Amino acid sequence: MVSEHNSLPQDSANGSPAPGSEEQKASVQQRIDQAIHEAARKLEQTAEQFERIGSQGSRASEYSQKVASQLRSGARLLEGTQTESLLDETRTLVRRHPMASLGVAFGVGFVVARLLRR
Fold first, then answer.
1. Residue 11 falls in which region: left (phi positive, over 0), alpha (psi -120 to 50) or beta
2. Which residue has the higher pLDDT, 25 or 106?
3. In whole angstroms, how far apart are CA 46 and each of 9, 21, 73, 84, 86?
4. How would residue 5 be classed by pLDDT, with cut points 50, 70 and 90?
5. β-bridge partners, 17
6. Per the record, which residues fall in region Disordered (predicted)?
7. How far is the C-alpha of 93 from the C-alpha of 89, rounded, in Å?
8. How far apart are CA 79 and CA 12, in angstroms?
9. pLDDT for 7 beyond 60
10. Who's near 66: CB < 8 A, 6+ residues apart?
C-alpha cells in the first residue's frame, strides 16, 4: 500500500503547517487580507457616521465632511493594498525608524480597538 506523502512540513504536535512553510505564509496573508478588508469596512462605516453629523447642520459640519472624505480615502487605499507590498514597506519603515514605529503601532492599535468596540 502506497501512502500519500504531504510535501509541506507539518508540526507533529497538532498537524498544523510548520512555521515558515508556504501553507502557513498563505494562511497569514489570508488573515491579513481579511483584517485589511474589515478595517476598510469600519472606516467606511465611520465615514458614514461623520457624514450624518455633517448633514445635521451643526457648526462642525464642514469638518465632519472633511473627516468623512479622508476616512473614505483611507478605506479605498486599504482595499487596493496588496499584502506582500504592504509587508515589504512595513519592514523597511520599521527598520529605519524603530521607535517611531512602536509609537505608531500603539496609536493604531488604540484606534482600531476603539473602532472594533462599536
1. beta
2. 106
3. 43, 37, 12, 27, 23
4. very low
5. 10
6. 1-35
7. 6
8. 37
9. no
10. none
